[in-house]
Design brief:
heterodimer, A: mainly alpha, two-stranded antiparallel ribbon, disordered N terminus, B: alpha/beta, Alkaline Phosphatase, subunit A, 2 domains, 31% helix
Chain lengths: 578, 429
């Protein structure tokens, strides 16, 4: 029976970076025993691969043991909460986790969070940003994504549905076409940018940005050929938006001939039919004139027809057959929790930009495909790995390149993660209008009851208002991948002076400021505020500083604890997942 | 920098790596902020504290109603030309104040640029039309912010005073990254959230930021420094801006200043611009809109030009009085000039083929007049100058050698000005 690797090769595409895949069989055979034993779980094989590659990244005189360290429980629980639920853990959750003596408590927490209702919400937010790149969202699209992750829909199915963009006769996949319709909208008098659409299909689903091969073979990337680009273009260039009453749906015009083109450098005519990246060109079926349609257009009612041959459907059906699709899926899922792709940038996979760990990426891709693209299983294996659970610091004076994955990467908190985390850290999530219904992992039910009647601070802003403000302050500009940590003066001023932030620090029943006001001494204040905001206990130095500061501001303790809580919220430590 | 139809920098980085045979470390781009090939340059120049005041008349100032009048000719229009403080040099009678100060200025009358539309022209002119390298080039303001740095003012290096809305305008920065974008002061007003929140005292603000720094210091220990540096930078910048609320307080401006700059929107914005330049901001851009006079060109310019004349003259006086003239480059221009031909709506249309730019300061040759147009003002006679020549000239005036200094865009070396152009020697003293 052919192994998974042979299955990949059998597809024989032009785009796969073969150089490193062919070397792979040899590499795997020569790997450490833990790596080659197929029966050992994926997370162990991940660690073996990362450790095997480590020596080349280590400075002279530094041993692996000096670098490879597991993060403590405090770091781990915060990292995991942010990655899987999109919000920092509460102080009580951290305390409970620290007190838990079970040796397998990390694995248990991973399972609990992956099974929580917060997981699909977090995945929806993450994938909406990745797939739409801040072009916006719609309630239907959000619901489609969240339902898909709640049902643990396999990635290949999810990708196929999005690439087909068909909501279903009974609207069972309502919102699924948003990925296309948003990109096919007209802005002012500008024509629809089909090149950008084709480019995004390649980038997001196949990990290849073929744009520079639009007018000629890519000048510097041998793998990216102009026919690859044109074939990809043809898959989506016949699709358009159609206003059907007050709803927008996708229509497609019949494709009857290959696309003719030539390079801007050489005037040699070429032609190509639809072609999925990494696969062979598809031949265009010929129909007698007038018989191209399964459902003919109705010019009187101005209803467009449905062609018999749909390049977009070819794309959706064939996509998972492409090795590039598998590598991209594995690389992007790895990126979501590891903070950096094995191939970087995520959309520039080619022979001259090999993965940092070629054999590992191949392993991940084949295993993901072999497990029917089970996202939750795959993430679970990544999270169980030591590689995920490493410290984010290095020994004094030592530098280790990030692509070694010997040290945990910093991941910027998205606007969504910041919204939830600021609300939870300040103890206001349940009290914000609209915040009661937010799905959080089970333990958080302990959050305070609604405010009672007595002292009435000004009403909290609505959740939707806060979400808009956070997005305006922290999100990337549209149409740009959101992968880098990009602090801005605008965001700093927002966090410093915006009413909606500072009102969260006013004391309200059960919230952080009220708890801090009730804490008996400086040590208790320090512990509560550090656990609530940063998910860790303060160091002795920090405890002393807090006590000293509170003593210094004994005249206005309320203002002092507010200043303290703000400083933690505005810290670099808070706005990164590290 | 939104994704455009252009190639991305790392592709060129890879290509360069191939060319150079695997140059290690070229990829160490840190936060993706472009950097200089010669990091010492900014420090070197900082000592001299060069600054720029860039006045942008959006829509297109008519050269015929300002710097290059052709009275009594076919396309000359109704206005006369008047003599100036430079013997033999005449400018439009709409600029009596500047006429008295032309011996301080350098005037180029031989601009011949390419773009006929506003959307292409504004960007091309302000980017200096570098050749397409597959990246989005920074506007002049972002370029200068990058090349000269923020100086000691503690204020952002690129401030833009404009009518209408404000905010942090990242797109000006192109591949240099958001840090070098403009802080736009809509109608001269402070950006959102600049005012310290009413619930906080100065002391509170200082204390909470001191606590923040303490937490950050601990976090940054034994980590790569970039994240904390970038995050600390924006908070420090925010704090510095908050400390300078006085710059937004117009009640402190003496009456005599209002009189000299003119009690107009543009006069007020120029005055605000001068105050930020005085406070040490590296690059101050001041915009005026409404110059696209396709209809009723002459009444339009009759109303607009004298306001600009008055405020620009006051700016020249102030820069000289304050000892800033030698270190401040003052430029006034548009995206193109206007057609000599007068259309059916008594207007003038877009004319990039023959127009003028005025500048001064930083040791530029005082009273210089470079190039000329033909008798009817339709075409340049003799050498034509594109915007690339102006960028070379301006960078030279700021002490930056465009042939030596280049950007380092994540490993991709990029010229700061069009490689086929050169400085205009006659302007450089």
């Amino acid at each position: 029976m052919p192994g998974p690797l042979t299955r990949i090769r059998a597809a024989s595409p032009s785009l796969v970076p073969w150089g490193w895949l062919t070397a792979l069989a040899v590499v795997i055979a020569a790997m450490t025993p833990g790596f080659s034993r197929a029966e050992s779980p994926l997370h162990e094989r991940i660690d073996a691969a990362v450790e095997a590659a480590l020596p080349q990244y280590l400075p002279e005189g530094v041993t692996p043991d000096q670098v490879l360290k597991l993060a403590d429980d405090e770091t781990f629980i915060r990292r995991l909460y942010l990655d899987i639920t999109g919000v920092v853990p509460s102080a009580d959750e951290v305390r409970a986790f620290l007190a838990d003596q079970a040796p397998d408590k990390r694995a248990k927490l991973i399972d609990r969070l992956l099974a929580s209702e917060a997981y699909p919400r977090r995945m929806r937010e993450l994938f909406n940003v990745m797939l739409m790149e801040r072009r916006g969202s719609s309630p239907e699209w959000n619901k489609y994504l969240e339902d898909s992750f709640a049902a643990n829909k396999p990635w290949d199915q999810l990708a196929r549905e999005i690439l087909a963009g068909e909501p279903g006769e009974d609207d069972s996949r309502l919102g699924v076409d948003f990925w296309y319709t948003k990109r096919l909208e007209n802005y002012g008098q500008n024509p629809v940018d089909y090149d950008a659409l084709a480019r995004d299909v390649g980038r997001l689903f196949f990990g290849v940005d073929l744009q520079c091969a639009n007018c000629h073979n890519h000048l510097f990337i041998d793998d990216y050929k102009q026919p690859d680009y044109k074939g990809l273009f043809l898959l989506v260039s016949g699709t358009a938006n159609f206003k059907d009453g007050n709803r927008t749906r996708l229509i497609e015009k019949p494709l009857t001939a290959k696309l003719e083109f030539s390079s801007v450098f050489e005037n040699v005519p070429m032609a190509i039919g639809p072609k999925v990246p990494g696969l062979q060109e598809v031949s265009i079926p010929e129909f007698p004139k007038g018989e191209e349609y399964a459902v003919p257009p109705d010019p009187k009612k101005k209803v467009p027809g449905v062609p018999k041959f749909s390049p977009r459907r070819v794309l959706a059906e064939q996509a998972p057959e492409s090795p590039n699709f598998r590598l991209n899926a594995a690389n992007r899922l790895w990126w979501t929790v590891m903070g950096r792709g094995l191939v970087e940038p995520l959309d520039l996979s080619h022979s001259d930009n090999p993965p940092s760990h070629p054999e590992l990426l191949a392993l991940l891709a084949t295993e993901l495909a072999a497990h029917d693209y089970d996202i939750r299983w795959f993430l679970r294996e990544l999270l169980l790995s030591k590689t995920y659970q490493r410290v984010g610091t290095v020994p004094e004076g030592v530098t280790i390149p990030p692509e070694s994955f010997a040290v945990a990467q910093e991941k910027p908190l998205s606007a969504e993660q910041l919204t939830w985390s600021v609300l939870r850290a300040t103890g206001n999530l349940a009290a914000v209008p609209g915040g009661e219904a937010v799905k959080l992992p089970a333990l958080t039910q302990a959050i305070a009851a609604k405010p009672a009647g007595e002292a009435k601070p000004q009403p909290l802003p609505k959740l939707t208002v806060l979400q808009q403000k956070f997005e305006a302050a922290f999100a990337n500009p549209a149409m740009e991948p959101e992968v880098e940590f990009k602090p801005s003066v605008k965001a700093a001023l927002f966090l410093s002076n915006d009413d909606s932030i500072l009102t969260l620090l006013e004391p309200r029943p059960g919230n952080l400021t009220e708890r801090l006001m009730a804490a008996p001494d400086g040590a208790a204040v320090a512990e509560e505020v550090y656990l609530s905001v940063l998910g860790r206990r303060p160091s002795q130095d920090e405890q002393a500083t807090v006590a000293e500061y509170l003593a210094q501001r004994a005249d206005d303790r309320l203002q002092a604890v507010k200043n303290l809580a703000w400083a933690l919220l505005a810290s670099t430590e808070f706005c990164l997942n590290h | 920098m939104k994704s455009s139809s252009l190639c991305k920098p790392w592709e060129h980085r890879l290509s360069r790596r191939q060319v150079l045979g695997g140059m290690a470390g070229a990829a160490a781009a840190g936060l993706g902020l472009g950097s200089l090939a010669q990091p010492l340059l900014a420090q070197e120049l900082k000592k001299q504290q060069k600054q720029v005041i860039f006045v942008w008349l959006d829509g297109g100032l008519s050269q015929l109603e300002s710097w290059d009048p052709k009275p009594g000719t076919q396309f000359g229009g109704p206005f006369r030309a008047i003599p100036t403080s430079v013997p033999g040099l005449h400018i439009s009678e709409l600029m009596p104040q500047m006429a008295k100060r032309m011996h301080h200025m350098a005037l180029v009358r031989s601009l011949c640029t390419k773009d006929n539309s506003h959307s292409a022209g504004v960007a091309r002119i302000q980017r200096g039309d570098p050749k397409n390298r597959g990246v989005t080039y920074p506007y002049f303001g972002s370029a200068v912010a990058k090349l000269l740095g923020a100086g000691d003012s503690g204020l952002p290096p690129y401030i833009w005073v404009k009518p209408g809305g404000g905010g942090f305008i990242d797109k000006d920065a192109g591949f240099l990254g958001a840090k070098y974008g403009a802080l736009a002061l809509g109608d001269g007003k402070p950006p959102e959230n600049l005012l310290r929140h009413p619930s906080l005292s100065q002391r509170d603000d200082e204390e909470r930021n001191a606590l923040r720094r303490m937490i950050n210091e601990r976090y940054a220990r034994n980590r790569r420094p970039q994240s904390n540096e970038a995050n600390s930078y924006v908070y420090d910048m925010a704090s510095a801006l908050m400390q300078r609320m006085d710059l937004f307080d117009e009640s402190k401006v003496p009456d005599s200043d209002w009189d000299r700059y003119g009690r107009t929107e543009f006069g007020r914005h120029m005055l605000i611009g001068r105050r930020f330049a005085e406070a040490g901001v590296t690059f101050v851009k001041i915009n005026s809109y409404g110059w696209d006079t396709h209809g009723d060109n002459f009444n339009g310019h009759l109303s607009l030009v004298p306001k600009v004349d008055q405020a620009l003259a006051a700016m020249v006086d102030d820069l000289i009085d304050r000892g800033m003239w030698d270190n401040t480059l003052l430029i006034m221009m548009s995206e193109f000039g206007r057609t000599p031909r007068i259309n059916g709506h008594i207007g003038r249309d877009h004319w990039p083929e023959a127009w003028s730019v005025v500048m001064g300061g930083t040791g530029l040759k005082e009273g210089a007049v470079i190039g000329k147009t033909n008798e009817q003002g339709t075409w340049v006679e003799g050498d034509e100058h594109d915007i690339g020549h102006m960028f070379h000239t301006w960078f030279r005036a700021l002490g930056i050698d465009p042939h030596r200094v280049e950007y380092d865009n994540a490993g991709q070396p990029l010229p700061i000005a069009h490689d086929d152009c050169h400085e205009i020697q006659e302007v450089l003293a």
